[in-house]
Please model this.
Amino acid sequence: MIQVILPAHLKNLARVSGPVSLEVKGVATVRSVLDAVEGAYPVLLGTLRDQSTKKRRAFVRFFADGRDFSLEADDFPLPEAVASGREPFLVIGAIAGG
Model:
């Protein structure tokens, strides 16, 4: 089971209060984790990535085991600590401004 931590506004939308535990089929990648999140919580479709292109939304970042996976290829394997559920997969809302 992979642990996914969502930002507060997406937790509210999905009606969850803490980390979500999801079963990911095959190799744990950003794509497979996001597929599992969207499968379990269809209300989040389109919030993390574009529905048609499946590209990451501009102000959403993905972290795993202390590393930014936002710009990695979607099929790049996540660290074993995340795949095994020891460490969470973090979805972070980026902030821009100045």
Remarks:
- The chain has one domain: 2-93.
- The longest helix spans residues 30-40.
- Helices lie at 8-14, 30-40, 80-83.
